[in-house]
Design brief:
The chain is 15% helix and 41% strand. By secondary structure, it is α+β, with helices and mostly antiparallel strands. The chain folds into three domains: 114 residues, no CATH class; 139 residues, no CATH class; 123 residues, Sandwich (Tick-borne Encephalitis virus Glycoprotein, domain 1), CATH 2.60.98.20.
Length: 405
C-alpha cells in the first residue's frame, strides 16, 4: 500500500506543478491585450475495489484511489476591462464577438483590437499583419482599405436650401453670404436680392443672384407663398446654370421648402425685418483626411478637412456556440476546433456586442484570484510531497525490519 501511496502522492506533485504553470502563465499575461485566462481541471484517477466478508449479499467493499490527473484546461471568456488608448485605429468589443483576421487561406479570431493601416492601405492586425475582415451589406467578409479615401474629392454645389421667414411686410431682403463650390472645388460667395412683387402678384418675390464680382448670374426668378405663409406649388424652387471662369457649368437648385409645410421658408408678416437665410448647401472643396473612428456598430467613419464625413467600411465579428472548442495559439489568436462554424455579423446586432473605438480590451486575469489559487496549489504541492516522504519512510522501516540488529 505504501507504494500506491507514493504513486498517488507523485500524481499530486505532477498535477499541482501543472497548476502552477497555468497560474504563472495567467499572471505573466496580466497586461496582455485580449488575453483570456485559463484554469486547470483536476480529475481523480481510477479506483481499486477490494471486497471482503462472508455475506455475499452485503460484502465489505473498499475503494482505493490512484491519485489525480489533469482534465485539461478551460478558458474564461469573461469580459476584460476596456481602456482608452487614444489610437484611432484601435477597437474593443464590449460583449460577445471576435475580430476576424485573414491571412491567405488562414482565418484567425481574436479579442485584441490593435489595428493599423499598412503601406497598401489595408486595415491589419499589428501582430501578424493579417488583414482585418469587414462585412458588407450582403453579409460577406471583405477587406477594409483606405488607400483611395485619404482625400475627399471636391463636389460642386447643386442644391441650396433655405429656412426662416421672408416677411410679407418688407419690400426687400438681401442674403450676401451664400458660399457655393464650383466643379473645381473653388469656393465662391453669392449675393441674393429678394424684391417684394406682391403689387403685381400676391405674395410673390423676385430674386436676383450676383457673384462676388457683382456679375449678375440670374435675375427675374420668382417664388410665391400661399395665404397660410407656406411655399406655393410650382413656385417653391428654381434652378439656374452657374459657370465661373475655368470651371464646368453646374446646375444649382434653390429649394424653399415643400408646399403646405412650415419646416423651411415661410412668409408671415413681421414688419420690415426678414430672417430668411441659407440652411444648407451640398458642395464641398477638396478635403484631406483629418480623423477616423469606429462607431458602436463597427462602422469606420472618415472625417475630412472640408467637413465631409464618409463611412468607409464596417468591422465583421464572429461568435461561436462552443467557445471551449476554440484553440489558443498565442499572440491573442484563436483557431476553430472541430467542425464548428462561426456566426458572422456586424457589431451591435444579434448576439454581437458593441464596438468601443479608440480603446482596447485588456486581459481578464484577476490578480487576487490568481494569488488565491497560487496558495492552494502551493499547499497541495507541499501536502503531496509530505505524503511521498512519509510513504518512503514507511518503506524504509519495512526494509530495516529484515536487517540483522
Amino acid at each position: 500500500m505504501a507504494f500506491g501511496t507514493i504513486y498517488s502522492g507523485t500524481t499530486g506533485l505532477l498535477i499541482f506543478s501543472k497548476g502552477l504553470d497555468v497560474i504563472s502563465n495567467n499572471v505573466a499575461n496580466l497586461n496582455t491585450v485580449g488575453y483570456k485566462r485559463n484554469d486547470l481541471l483536476f480529475r481523480d484517477l481510477f479506483y481499486q475495489l477490494q471486497q471482503s466478508g462472508q455475506n455475499a449479499e452485503q460484502p465489505n467493499r473498499s475503494r482505493f484511489g490512484s491519485g489525480v490527473t489533469d482534465g485539461g484546461t478551460v478558458t474564461s471568456y469573461a469580459q476584460g476591462e476596456i481602456q482608452d488608448t487614444g489610437n484611432e485605429t484601435d477597437a474593443a468589443i464590449d460583449g460577445n464577438g471576435f475580430f476576424i483576421l485573414r491571412d491567405g487561406d488562414n482565418t484567425f479570431y481574436t479579442r485584441a483590437g490593435q489595428f493599423l493601416f499598412d503601406d497598401d492601405g489595408f486595415l491589419v492586425s499589428d501582430r501578424l499583419d493579417s488583414r482585418v475582415a469587414g462585412i458588407n451589406a450582403a453579409g460577406e467578409l471583405i477587406d477594409i482599405n483606405i488607400s483611395g479615401a485619404r482625400t475627399n474629392p471636391a463636389q460642386a454645389t447643386t442644391e441650396v436650401t433655405f429656412g426662416n421667414n421672408l416677411s410679407a411686410g418688407s419690400t426687400s431682403h438681401v442674403i450676401n453670404d451664400l458660399e457655393v463650390f464650383d466643379s473645381l472645388g473653388e469656393q465662391h460667395t453669392l449675393t441674393l436680392t429678394f424684391t417684394n412683387n406682391s403689387a403685381v402678384t400676391p405674395r410673390s418675390w423676385l430674386i436676383e443672384v450676383e457673384d462676388e464680382n457683382t456679375n449678375i448670374i440670374t435675375t427675374g426668378e420668382e417664388i410665391r407663398f400661399q395665404a397660410n405663409g407656406s411655399p406655393e406649388v410650382g413656385f417653391n424652387e428654381f434652378s439656374f446654370s452657374y459657370q465661373p471662369a475655368g470651371a464646368a457649368a453646374t446646375e444649382i437648385n434653390f429649394d424653399f421648402g415643400q408646399p403646405g409645410s412650415f419646416a423651411a421658408a415661410t412668409s408671415f408678416s413681421s414688419g420690415s425685418i426678414s430672417s430668411l437665410a441659407v440652411s444648407s448647401q451640398n458642395g464641398a472643396g477638396l478635403g484631406s483626411l483629418l480623423n477616423l473612428s469606429f462607431d458602436r456598430s463597427g462602422m469606420l467613419n472618415l472625417e475630412y478637412s472640408n467637413g465631409e464625413i464618409f463611412a468607409l467600411g464596417q468591422l465583421g465579428l464572429a461568435w461561436f456556440d462552443a467557445l471551449q472548442s476554440l484553440q489558443q495559439i498565442g499572440n491573442g489568436l484563436f483557431l476553430v476546433g472541430g467542425d464548428q462554424k462561426p456566426q458572422i455579423s456586424a457589431a451591435a446586432s444579434g448576439v454581437m456586442g458593441d464596438i468601443v473605438g479608440n480603446s482596447i480590451e485588456i486581459s481578464n486575469v484577476e490578480l487576487s484570484q490568481e494569488f488565491t489559487d497560487l496558495i492552494i496549489v502551493q499547499r497541495g504541492f507541499q501536502a503531496s510531497s509530505q505524503v511521498v516522504s512519509v510513504s518512503n519512510e514507511m518503506i524504509q522501516q519495512l526494509r530495516d525490519i529484515g536487517r540483522p540488529g
